[in-house]
Amino acid sequence: MPGTAPVSSVQMDNTETQGLAADDGDGEANMSIASHIFGTVGGVSGFGDFDSPATVPSDGLLADIEGMRSHSRLSRQEISELRHRLLSNAVPSPSNLPLDFSQLNMNDLHGGNEKREQSEQRRDSLELPGPAIPHWMHNRPYGSLDFIASDRNPEDVGPLGDVAVSSQEQQLLEDVLSVMTGIEGTYITLSKQPPNPDLGLYRTFVVDSSVEKSVQALVQKVLPVCSQYAQLVRFIEDHSEHHKGLVNHALAAALTTLLKDYLLLVLQLESQLRSGVLTLHRLWFYVEKTAPVMDLLASITAEITKTGARGGAVLSLLQARVESLTGCGKLQELAVYLATAAAQPYLDCLAAWISRGHIKDPYAEFMVQSNEQCTDNEDNVDEAADQDDSDDNKEGNVDTYWQWRYTLEPSNTPSFLTSYADLILRTGKYLNVIKQSASGGRAGASSAPLQLRYSPDPEHYSASIETAYAAASKTLLHHLIDDQHLLSRIRSLKQYFLLAQGDFISQLLSMCESELSKPLDDVLPHRLEFLLELALRTSNGAGYQDSIHTVLLPYTLLDQMMRILSIETTEEQEHRQALSRLDLTGIEGFSLSCSVPWPASLVLDTRTLFCYRMLFRHLFYCKHVERQLCKVWLSNQACKGLPMSTRRSYTAAFLLRHRMLAFMQNIEYYMMFEVIERHWHQFLADMNKVESVDELLQHQSHFLDKCMKDGLLTTPDLLRTLTKIIGICASFASFILRSQKIQEGAELSPTGEDDLEAQKANPAYEETVPSASESFEQTIARYDIQFNGMLVTLMDKVADLGRQDYTDAIINILYRLDFNKYYSSRDDALTNLGECSMQAAPVDDHEQDGNGAAGSSVQG
């Protein structure tokens, strides 16, 4: 029939097979769908009515025509006319056509070709993974099993309503079977209106309006199945492209298997049509059972197409559909079948990750993503790091590399694996640590390949994942402890950072004290590094001396802790803005750093080393103040040669120095023995029973957290009060040591001009120097009031903290500082003095500069 669109070779092969499988018959009942289409395309009487263009006949074809003269019943004249008609209707061969002929009317031949081209351009711009689809695949619409839009003129076909109802039904049966296989019928055609997005972009059809209403109603019942078939075919073709991913490929393959049964049903219906026993009622009887299945499959594919889901997102969608079909019997089994088939490539990738630490994910579908560019970024950051913070940057870069080398992609995490996501990530990471370490001989992988299969129950995966995790964690633990000597490294940190090595800290203070008394900007880092190395070599250390280095930080311990504790609070921005106003001495900014090699840095990471560093700064400064008070005691010995009447004027200073020294020694004893040693022994006991890396990390974190908490570093009020008391003690010692004479020009402690200039650079210098109207006795009395008041305030806050969160170690401070009830007997008076001292302490102005900067997070 003129103007009818041709049919794809795939469709013709399919319908020919259906025709061959049908029973033999006579008349129209013996015609298959393929023969009907062939009759529509070329079933005209004679070639004179063939209006579509033809190519030039080949020489072989003309020879065959010549050979027909001796075998055909046609006369010589009829064969000559046939040859003349073929040559007269021919057009130039494709090799002689214009260059753009291959694209001529392609959009008219296939309604979705333009959409395919746009999708291809979008794919090229996004650089999607996988090989590109050849252009000729999109320029050949007849390679699709979906409907092909034709330029058929409806006026070429007369109204079907003009014939009898039985004939209408017979013709519509043929059209329905054609439409059920993606072939447009004669009286059932594609709708020219665009698809409705609310209906899932399903194709719609138009039935000849002249058909009898009852017959048309039966046809309308079957047409949704045809739309759903078209949706499935379109999904299979679109999602079989490489960049759609392995999950979509597996799902498309499973749908193809199901469509074979659907096409077998159509074949059986055609067989009945040829036998003359098929009616529309019988057709609907058979199709009605298939309709829910087709609706389920089409709705799943439509949702995946609408959301653009890939990988784990597709599995989450299928899992939700399986759960929603609980109690639906066969439909749920069908959904489980699809989920099982689609999940297998994903679960194979999961098995490779948790058993070998390997990611085989060519289309970026897996829940764990590998970011290989982190190595290059690490080198760039190291080059840009400042000299003072080089060790911090290196530690931070290792943590950043380990944190971002393998990351979770939430959108690719199936809903049935969400609860195991962190466990899965760590399992593969641990295996990669073992492979990347020097002694990578520990395979860490399962001896037998791990096999995972889909199950709607999330608990089904628990045993496999936890077993793989336990094996990887245990292997890494033995590697860290046996090969990397992790416990020895932790003991060395305790020796140097927690001042367990007494001779080391004494020599370090003796060698570096003169250099650290200078302003921070005047301290020479290379000189400090040399003095540190000398102190390490001359002390009986625990090894790993080469990994210890000095660092000068532009903030005090109080600033550092307040910056951490006030993160994401209203005080953070205020502390950050005030940070630039700090003016410190070297002793206030001095700290140690430690370089830890990989993979020991997995346990001794930046956060862990920061905790060790903060504990060291607190203990180191307390030791420094204690040494200063001991120097005051030495200077006081010069007064022994003075007359008794003269020495009495210094009694108050001697008593205050004694109370301050007792306070500093009690605080150090509390920190060293009642906090650090107590928790250290518990930490060692836990380490002897550890069975996984997670337990090791947990015990390490617990040890440092308890030391920080019981050491009063994590409570802002207590830390601020303790810092002020230590500042008062340091200010008092500085005042006494700077005093040039006691009674009749006697020097308590002569200091050089260089030291005097360094002391003047301290922001607290002006506060510690008595004014012209203030005598020596009045200055000592002021220090006494401030010290007693702040000490009582500290004990009150410790007591309040003990009532809120009782801790034996913290309560022991009260018994040590007030063992003879001296302060508690004067509680009321000293409490009032303490409230005044909070405003009048000599370090207040300095703390306004330093503490005001507290709040921003510490940068590694």
TrEMBL record:
Domain Gamma tubulin complex component protein N-terminal: 173-482
GO molecular function: gamma-tubulin binding; microtubule minus-end binding
Source organism, top-level taxon: Eukaryota
Chain intervals for the UniProt region annotation (Disordered): 1-27, 93-132, 841-860
Basic and acidic residues composition-biased segments: 111-126
GO BP term, pick one: spindle assembly
Locations listed in the record: Cytoplasm, Cytoskeleton, Microtubule organizing center
Pfam families: GCP_C_terminal (PF04130), GCP_N_terminal (PF17681)
Polar residues bias locations: 1-18, 93-106
Keyword Cytoplasm carried by entry: yes
Keyword annotations of the record: Cytoplasm, Cytoskeleton, Microtubule
Domain Gamma tubulin complex component C-terminal: 486-823
GO terms for cellular component: gamma-tubulin complex; microtubule; spindle pole
PANTHER family: GAMMA TUBULIN COMPLEX PROTEIN, GAMMA-TUBULIN COMPLEX COMPONENT 2
Similarity comment: family membership: Belongs to the TUBGCP family.
Protein name listed in UniProt: Gamma-tubulin complex component
